[in-house]
Write a structure and sequence with these properties.
By secondary structure, this protein is mainly α.
Amino acid sequence: MIEMRRAQLSFGDGFIAEEVSDLREDWMEYADQALADFTKYLALKPDDPYGYGERATIYESRAQWSLALAEYNQVIKLIPNEVYGYGNRGMIYLQLKIVLSRDTFES
């Protein structure tokens, strides 16, 4: 379904606004399901840092920075000697700085 909509987007400007909106709705539905699945997964396997990392990725894509940050903090708690959590948490801090700077500038 998504591939078909991408094809429509490339064939004419008339579809663009409507199809982008539809793609976002489709994506959000899939993201909601993925979030629910990772939450169930982590209930069964709470010591898997990569489950928290995947859930953080979903939060990042939604610009839910504090939730993503909490997930990466959990990753670091579980695997403190690996770079995975630190690097991703650093990217969240960078994104927050950009967002906060933009908000300050636009005020």
